[in-house]
Amino acid sequence: MDSVVRPTRPETDEHFDSARITAAVDALAAKHAGREDLFRAAVAQLFKAELIAARATAQAVLLRDRHGRHCAERLCFVQDEIIRILFSAATRHLYHSPIPSGAERMAVVATGGYGRGLMAPESDIDLLFILPYKQTAWGEQVAEAILYCLWDMGLKVGHATRSVDESIRQARGDMTIRTAILETRYLAGDRPLYDELVERFDREVVQGTAAEFVTAKLAEREERHRRAGQSRYLVEPNVKDGKGGLRDLHTLFWIAKYVYRVRRTDELLDRGVFDAQEYRTFRRCADFLWSVRCNIHFVAGRAEERLSFDLQREIAVRLGYTSHPGMQDVERFMKHYFLVAKDVGDLTAILCAKLEDQQAKPAPVLSRMMARLRPGLNRRRVPESDDFIVDNNRINLAAPDVFQHDPVNLIRIFRLAQKNNLAFHPDAMRTVTRSLKLINTELREHPEANRLFMAILTSNDAEVVLRRMNETGVLGHFIRPFGRIVSMMQFNMYHHYTVDEHLLRCVGYLQEIERGGNDEFIVASDLMRKIRPEHRAVIYITTLLHDIAKGRPEDHSIAGAKVARRLCPRLGFSPADTETVAWLIEQHLVMSTVAQSRDLSDRKTIENFAAVVQSVEQMKLLTILTTADIRGVGPGVWNGWKAQLLRTLYYETEPVLTGGFSEVNRARRIAVAQAEFRAAFTEWPEPELNAYIARHYPAYWLKVELPRKIRHARFLRASEQAGHKLAINVGFDEARGVTELTILATDHPWLLSIIAGACASAGANIVDAQIYTTTDGRALDTIAISREYDRDEDEARRARRIGEMIEDVLEGKLRLPEVVARRTARGGKMRPFVVEPEVVVNNQWSDRYTVIEVSGLDRPGLLYELTTAISKLNLNIASAHVATFGERARDVFYVTDLMGAQINAPTRQAAIKSALTRLLANEEPAVQPAA
Fold it and tell me: How many of the other CB atoms lie within 10 Å of CB of 222?
């Protein structure tokens, strides 16, 4: 990135001796004189061995000094020398021309990424062979000799052969070729030919086209981010093409080279594009990203650019990160990664501002959600303040010292932009970042600053404005505990974003809930309108703070409540409201856990939950917070089933809190659910509809969402009319990336175990299950399995295979243990996560059943193993609640002994716990039938 001139020879490449290797090539030429094929093969073999040795040396040095840029320069130097020696061998030994004609001239040039003088271990090589005129037989032979040798070495080579005229003509019409030539670097051959290309490219292509090039490159960057995932805080980022990755730095340099005609990045300092500190940041970001990228290539053994979970820990160790209390080594590494990605974004904004000042690019709308075209003058005072002006529809500073003059302006600028629908001028944001030292205890305690902050949080577009506050560093300095979780990732598959990004997204979803109109949030939106007016600010601050204590040794819910008790009085909350915020943060996981892993038709579940939430108002707030929290985790995590479970839990608990458990209230809600079904489903005659409704137990009507009820009705009727004993319906949930199998079968004590075993045998991983029984003894189970194939047709075939296996097992044609054993014996890739096995056995969550809750690392076949082990322990499973949270499986079973009683004996409870803990730890379960 830093230089597009020939890389200097790295000190540590004494093993790659160009003179020695040139002499070895000459010796091979003499040995195989007249045998061109043998000479080529021997040269390719020699270079392949030298390249393997050079890469091994580069990796050893990288592990020692952890300097990725030096590694990339080292590898590039070796590649350059190989190509130079190859060119020399081709022109001296293979196609020697004692008196070359004017047409027998060629320059070999590095282009693209290779042209920058930096190479990752598995990167492609891009070469341009420049000719004076059209292609000649000599030029074609020399180029082919070089290319075939590189290909025989196993390298991936992109290449083109063009005259100077053709290169200029194509560069005018094709932005990709123009960018490639922008980064050319001379390697071998006719130097004047290369110099001619550079001089003509600058004069005939670059001059007068800066605005066009900048616009094209920024549009290309936007499209790349869209493909790679818009957020720079995705927890498995693409180091090369992701937001804040190396390609963004490359784009910066392309633009700078084109507009300012610089050849090296240090010239950006001389041209005043970056100041000394920003240039150091530029270098630091590039060094760090190159270290990560080179290590990924070495570990993966291929051109892998995605920093996936299975690579993250290995790279963290290679780069020397260690674990601290509350944060693993890998989490500390990834936090550093995301901070660097943020810095890359800041540098992009700085360059764009500089270009705009010089009119090399049109004035952008930097925040599309906030800015809109407004009539009037380009520059005017912002209403309510003399310290800020509107500059091209963006807020800017009226004077350079507005923050020193009044530090509250560091918060006020964001509130005024929000209030007046203004975007942020990059120069203003740059000054904000340089003024962070003004955010001290006095400013944090200032009543006006805190009032402005709460106004930002509770007004329109809060998510956008808070994100800008976060990017400039103001949010983390003003709310210091927030600063601790900026760019912090959690090393698990459940959370898609860093902690700060998750919290900001949750605020955005809370605003969507408040606006209403989205059927996803119908219950939460209704409750938002019914909470007490003074609790609107309570739910907003709670949403922003609920994960504020992640990364600490103490449980983050308890530690977060302590943070809230210290912070909220400063923000203007009364003692009662402060306590409400603290309570919500401490309990913010309870509702989600109960809804997804408890039997909501069991009265004890509802009474226990009511004892936790204490009042209807607190339950309203907790329901709204839980909805925003689950939705903010990432795409596909929130769905209709979870929404229905929360709704059921809320409405089951409400009567308990308002005057005792009311069966009448419950009966009325069941009647309402059935009436809703009747109104939506008008395909059947009344008698048939009545008979169908009577087939389902009350819990079914309360817990299943309406679209699924309608699908179930059609499925049951079609299956029974066709006379199927067992039927499977296949559906696809695009948002969650799962395939849903709805299975209708005669109920059987081992049915869940059989279904789980069939899924395991087909290599299907169960992510959740909804299990219901009809009053006439039919099981209606919906199992969600992770997708294996991209095409729905292939997924449907796999589902049919699972169905046939279930049928064969039920009919005694197949023994599941043998099939599952064969499948699991094949093994799979070890997953990089560690989840401590946990088994809880208790009788407090139900009056009729013993509840077994298991939590551990998910794996294919786990549900089958658990249900089989429970059955072998002579226990009946009355209901099961199956869920996965990323890599963590959390399954809850309501069981009795064979006589239908709870398990009360401590020794038997201990035996259950011991057997299931061993199973979760993947040890031999050694389950013996209980006495």
Answer: 11
> Could you identify the residue written with the tokens 């990924």?
296
Paired with 772 in beta bridges are 780
Burial class (CB in 10 A: 0-12, 13-18, 19+), 237: buried
Hey, which of 308-322, 445-459, 874-888 has the most confident mean pLDDT?
445-459
CA 595 to chain centre: 26
Mean pLDDT of the chain: 85
Q: What is the DSSP letter of 438?
A: G
Cβ atoms of 197 and 186 within 8 Å: the answer is no
Q: How far apart are CA 536 and CA 376, in angstroms?
A: 36
Burial of 651 (0-12, 13-18, 19+ CB in 10 A): middle
Using CA atoms of 91, 96, 97, 103 in order, give the dihedral in degrees to the nearest 10.
-40
Measured over the CA atoms of residue 144, residue 149, residue 154 and residue 158, the dihedral's sign is negative
Q: Identify which of 20, 193, 28 has the alpha carbon closest to the alpha carbon of residue 100.
A: 193
314: which residues sit within 8 A by CB, 6+ positions away?
Answer: 295, 299
Phi-psi region of 577 (alpha: psi -120 to 50; beta: other; left: phi over 0): alpha
Who wins on pLDDT, 657 or 560?
560
Q: How far is the C-alpha of 427 from the C-alpha of 413, rounded, in Å?
A: 13
Euclidean distance between CA atoms 488 and 317, whole angstroms: 18
Q: Are 566 and 545 in contact (CB under 8 A)?
A: no
Rounded to whole angstroms, the Cα distance separating 740 from 730 reads 6
Buried b (16+ CB within 10 A) or exposed e, 548-567: bbbbbeeebbebbbbbbeeb
Q: Retrieve residue 195's tokens.
A: 């110099």
What backbone torsions phi and psi does residue 275 show, to the nearest 5 degrees?
Answer: -85, 180
Helix (H) or strand (E) run with residue 466 in it: helix 462-472
- Strand order across the beta sheet in which 388-391 lies: 379-381, 388-391, 394-397, 423-424
Sign of CA dihedral 92, 93, 95, 98: positive
Q: At what angle do helices 751-761 and 816-825 cross, to 10 degrees?
A: 40
Q: From CA 752, how far away is CA 877, in angstroms rounded? A: 9
Provide CB contacts within 8 A for 362, sequence distance 6+: 211, 215, 356
Q: How far apart are CA 647 and CA 639, in angstroms?
A: 12
* pLDDT value of position 666: 76
Whether residue 289 is predicted with pLDDT greater than 90 in this model: the reply is yes
Q: Are residues 551 and 338 in contact, defined by beta-carbon separation less than 8 angstroms?
A: no
Band of residue 364 on the pLDDT scale cut at 50, 70, 90: very low
Instruction: Check: pTM over 0.85? Answer yes or no.
Output: no
Which of 737, 724, 772 has the alpha carbon at shortest distance from 751? 772
- Residues 708 and 719: their CA atoms lie apart, in Å, by 16
Give ∠ CA 38-39-45 in degrees, rounded to 5.
90
Residue 2: its pLDDT value, please?
42
**Residue 249 pLDDT:** 87
pLDDT in tens, 405-439: 999 999 999 999 999 999 888 889 889 999 999 99
Nearest to 857 by CA among 833, 891, 880, 893: 833
Cα(25)–Cα(18) distance, integer angstroms: 10
Q: Are 645 and 651 in contact (CB under 8 A)?
A: no
Strand pairing report for 125-131 and 888-897? unpaired
Residue 925 has pLDDT above 60, yes or no: no
- Angle of CA points 405, 410, 415, to nearest 5°: 125
389 forms beta bridges with 381, 396
